[in-house]
């Protein structure tokens, strides 16, 4: 058995489920690229952890949370969309992180993930955070969707739109942070986007959509990590991130074919 594979599966499935669930809102809100861009913001924090010998994920968490609050405050002040603000900072963060990490092997793990160093503590942390993220998102799900449909209507219904959006952004940051260990900063945003897009192809209502999105996220992570374990005998085995992406894209392609056949049969 590949070292760290069992713990990686626990983290991967947890991240896939929670990222798929939160991603179902982001795709509806046309904020799909926000989750992807936020993952790049974590890289300088990871680099600081490596340079100063503290857990890199703590640095990643700190940068993601700080960035989420900054994005929210700038959005309030300027009325610019999340995509615009995140797009203005994520490439800079990526560049700074790459410049700070000189070890190419460490940089590769930060960008594309690794299963070799996943510990029991990582697995427990990932499961707990994923459960908390899904639980809190379920509480605010309808409020976020309502504010997406009409911010004025949401306010009239007593929804604090600003607070709900901030909480949702922080939850996205949490899920992205725990996913970095497996898929890396470049690819973890995939789990927020593609599973939800695949679920949208097969869903006639919001409940089915959110459930399928979670399921597809978990399946993508599971298949990708298992594939990483199966090819670990290679001299230069691929990291888990790209294989998770390939598994998810194949799943998405299958849903496109199913939707296409349904349309033809109507």
User: Which assembly state applies to the chains in this document?
Assistant: single chain
How many domains? The number is 1
Q: What is the overall pLDDT average?
A: 81
Give the biggest beta sheet.
Answer: none
Number of helices: 12
Molecular structure report:
The protein has a single domain (5-265), classed as Orthogonal Bundle (ABC transporter involved in vitamin B12 uptake, BtuC). It is mainly α. It has 12 helices and no strands. Helices cover 83% and strands 0% of the residues.
Give structural attributes:
mainly alpha, 266 residues, ABC transporter involved in vitamin B12 uptake, BtuC, 0% strand, globular
SSE order and pairing:
Blueprint: H1 5-28, H2 32-41, H3 43-51, H4 56-78, H5 82-100, H6 104-112, H7 120-149, H8 151-156, H9 161-187, H10 190-202, H11 206-230, H12 240-265
Q: What's the gist of this structure?
A:
The chain is mainly α and 266 residues long. Helix content is 83%, strand content 0%.
